[in-house]
Design goal:
Radius of gyration: 30 Å
Low-confidence stretches: 1-23, 215-248
Strand content: under 5%
Number of strands: 2
Helix content: over 70%
Order of helices and strands: EEHHHHHHHHHHHHHHHHHHHH
């Protein structure tokens, strides 16, 4: 979907009657193993995005453990979230070179190592490196291939497949919040992070399921040309009396054995040469793959300067810079807000972040269905959901009861379902040919927003001793981003009025 590489093959080639290569659909596209890819991507979303949305539980533990300011402590979570998305465009280089399977497996190992090392962190600054950078980098390496592989395996039902796989974010937030709360209560936050590191190793299993769509060539047999095939030994001629044959026969057999030994030695020498040749061929092939992967990656991102001459796309980037933080901030700071309002007992029964997660799932599905209706514009649905989300951000500080916060969290979760519409809106702006590069840039802008938003909210609290101003200021910044979005419909309205005026003038 987003990158092309040696894995990105959606068809098989077979030899025709005149030795010409003919094209036939790959049997796994839109079916078969493709649904295993959806399942794999679903679990990647649970393990990565779900656990990141549940970091508010650990943020409370870190505040109590290290006694640092809220602004400084929030950098741990925001670094992990931000780096996961910011490195997205650069992970494309690994995907083009090594493939999605290897990239995901390595990412799972790095992510797990980040969790385990963070369990032994002596300070918040250590968590910046072990969790923010290491775990965030591993998450980015595993997250992007999960999205790419679903796009490669689906052509006709790609939107449905992507929608089903991304619901793992909502399920993961619900499950990981409950899991981390239980582990912290039973074993402490350090052991909880160690256990979560072991759980994250399942990313390697998800990566192993990412089987590339490969070319199957006919005429390839199991036996290789280099196999040492020994001649069959001649049967000794035995006389009817059971005695061995004559001396001449024995000498003939000995001569045959010498010839066979020489043949095997020659073939062993030939095999050694072939092994050396294969090593050189593999190194040459790897070098070509690296060069091709870098060339594709470079042309995909730095060769698309024309995207930045598109005013509407630039406006969309500015929206992305402001939008994502308003969705992330409640996940990071809500657990502490609950403690400040003495609502921990009710929140333990049903966490507010879980309410956001559940409604987020429904929001993605329902908003996607509504946007697909022929009489409704995707842009209008996208804008309405944004207005609903920013309104919720403004109202949230006014709620001081669990019921009031639950209603607002439900509205936040449902409205944030517009994230499933982002690829459609991006394609509407730049066209299908630039969708991959453009969406990578939007994800990077979201990552910057996630990186800066939570520490900014914590910093405002350190100054004012209230979270109210954090949400008000973030809401205002979000409004600025929505104003950039309004440039698109305004331009469309102006062009429409110009066309009507021109047509009427011609008449």
């Amino acid at each position: 979907m987003m990158y092309t590489s040696h894995e990105d093959i959606g068809c098989d080639f077979e030899d025709g009657p005149k030795d010409k290569k003919t094209l036939k659909p790959h049997p796994d596209v839109d079916g078969g193993w493709a649904w295993v890819m959806v399942l794999s991507s679903f679990f990647v979303h649970i393990l990565i995005m779900g656990s990141q949305m549940a970091l508010g539980v650990l943020n409370v533990e870190w505040l109590e453990e290290f006694h640092q300011s809220r602004g400084l402590t929030a950098w741990v979570s925001s670094l992990s979230m931000g780096i996961t998305l910011i490195v997205g465009p650069f992970i494309g280089l690994f995907i083009n070179t090594c493939g999605c399977r290897q990239t995901t497996i390595v990412g799972g190992l790095v992510n797990s190592l980040g969790w385990v090392l963070s369990a032994n962190a002596a300070s918040v600054q250590c968590l910046f490196v072990t969790f923010g950078v290491a775990a965030g980098l591993g998450s980015g390496m595993a997250y992007l291939p999960a999205v790419v592989m679903v796009g490669r395996y689906f052509h006709k039902r790609r939107a449905l497949a992507q929608g089903l796989s991304t619901t793992g974010t909502g399920f993961g937030t619900f499950l990981m919040t409950a899991l981390l709360k239980y582990l912290c209560a039973e074993y402490g936050w350090r052991n909880a992070m160690f256990i979560q590191g072991a759980v994250s190793l399942n990313l390697c299993v998800c990566g192993a399921l990412m089987r590339p769509l490969s070319v199957e060539k006919e005429g390839e047999h199991a036996g290789g040309k280099d196999a040492c095939i020994l001649p069959a030994h001649s049967t000794e001629s035995v006389k009817s009396g059971g005695h061995p044959g004559t001396t001449e026969e024995k000498e003939s057999q000995a001569g045959n054995e010498d010839l066979q030994d020489q043949e095997c030695q020659g073939q062993a020498w030939h095999r050694k040469n072939m092994c050396a040749f294969r090593v050189l061929k593999a190194v040459s092939h790897l070098t070509l793959r690296v060069r091709k992967g870098f060339r594709d990656w470079y042309s995909g991102y730095f060769g698309t300067a024309s995207l930045f001459t598109n005013r509407m796309f630039v406006a969309f980037i500015f929206w992305a810079l402001f939008a994502y933080s308003s969705f992330v901030i409640p996940f990071i700071h809500l657990p502490e807000i609950v403690n400040l309002y003495n609502l921990s007992e009710q929140d333990n029964v049903f966490p507010l972040t879980s309410i956001i997660a559940i409604l987020h799932i429904f929001g993605k599905v329902i908003l996607g269905v509504v946007a697909d209706l022929p009489c409704i514009s995707v842009w209008n649905v996208f804008l309405m959901a944004n207005f609903s989300l920013v309104l919720s951000i403004f109202i949230l500080p006014l709620m001081h009861t669990y019921a009031g916060l639950a209603v607002i969290c439900a509205l936040i979760g449902f409205s944030s379902g517009y994230f499933s519409l982002m690829p459609v809106v991006t394609e509407d702006l730049v066209g299908i040919e630039h969708l991959a590069s453009a969406y990578g840039i939007i994800i990077c802008a979201n990552g910057i927003s996630a990186l800066l938003g939570p520490p900014f909210a914590g910093w405002i609290y350190d100054i004012t001793q209230k979270y109210d101003f954090s949400f008000y200021i973030c809401g205002l910044l979000y409004m600025v981003g929505i104003l950039f979005l309004l440039i698109h419909p305004c331009i469309q309205m102006i062009e429409h009025s110009r066309r009507k005026f021109t047509d009427s003038a011609h008449v």
